[in-house]
Design goal:
Elements (H helix, E strand, L loop, with lengths): L3 E2 L21 H20 L12 H7 L8 E3 L6 E5 L2 E5 L6 E2 L4 E2 L4 E2 H15 L7 E3 L7 E7 L4 H8 L1 H6 L2 E7 L8 H10 L4 H9 L14 H11 L3 E2 L1 E3 L5 E3 L4 H18 L1
Helix pairs in contact: 6-7
Length: 277
């Protein structure tokens, strides 16, 4: 699977707080991070209790310490004394009084199912469903689409270009592609300007294809270009590079897949989702 990582000079590329343990910079840091994760897992197991216990995750108690939290974003978890807060597609865990933050995922040991990933997927679906076709550049197959993927793309990413060159095969497999821009080098870069020019072109689909083929695309500036909104959404989702594919069931595929492999992955996600219902 191919993947264009964020450029070192890109702004706002720090790991998303509250979701993953920071990558170790040296062996000592790695040791303490691993110890931290082990302690966290043991602590989580220690607080597992009855699923029918009264909820201690009161939104008003959490909001007293974290005023920006929405009431409907707070919910219980399978662990007593651990509350979930959703910030868009980001999931974090706190103590009922929000005095302590838990960094990591909840995994059901018996089934080896990552419950946090399931919650992230549902949250991503909600974010994607709020988008309108006019907010994206859509490449739809002639026949009715069997699957829809939303792709965060960088015009200068080689693997993004490779994915785009397979558009005919993706359409043959019944896959609709909806593009959002995520110039990895950030605002003010050449990639950002190319995205602006594509969006402001009379025919955005043709302009995007031309730009991905290395052609120069010129256009008058337009106020409607949503590059900043797309970029912010990508950061919120927690992207680390491009292409980043969000499936219709909310899974995040980081990197390039050939058209047939993409179809296989989408079918497997859809089957798994239907089995969970």
């Amino acid at each position: 699977m191919g993947f264009c990582r964020l450029l070192q000079s890109a702004p706002h590329t720090e790991p998303t707080p509250g979701l993953t343990v920071i990558n170790a910079v040296n062996p000592t840091t790695r040791f303490f991070n691993n110890m931290y994760k082990t302690i966290l897992a043991l602590a989580a197991l220690a607080v597992v209790g009855s699923a029918h216990a009264e909820s201690v995750c009161k939104p008003e108690n959490i909001q007293a310490r974290l005023p920006g939290v929405e009431s409907d974003s707070v919910r219980d978890t399978p662990l007593d004394g651990v509350c979930e807060i959703a910030f868009g597609p980001q999931i974090v865990y706190v103590s009922p009084d929000a005095q302590y933050l838990i960094r990591g995922d909840i995994v059901e040991i018996e089934s080896n199912v990552n419950l946090t990933d399931q919650r992230r997927a549902k949250a991503r679906v909600k974010v994607m469903n709020d988008l309108k076709a006019d907010d994206m550049i859509v490449f739809a197959p002639e026949d009715e689409a069997r699957h829809v993927i939303t792709v965060f793309t960088d015009i200068d990413c080689g693997y993004c270009r490779k994915l785009h060159r397979e558009m005919a095969d993706l359409h043959k497999n019944g896959i609709q592609v909806q593009y959002l821009f995520f110039p990895r080098s950030g605002p003010g870069s050449a990639s950002w300007q190319k995205a602006q020019n594509v969006w402001c072109s009379d025919n955005r689909n043709d302009a995007l294809t031309a730009a991905k083929n290395g052609e120069s695309v010129k256009a008058e500036p337009c106020e409607s270009a949503p590059i900043q909104e797309h970029y912010a959404m990508g950061q919120m989702v927690g992207l680390r590079g491009t292409p980043a594919v969000i499936t219709e069931t909310g899974e995040l595929i980081s990197g390039y897949l050939p058209a047939d492999a993409m179809l296989t992955r989408l079918e497997s996600f859809k089957t798994a989702t239907m089995a969970d219902k």
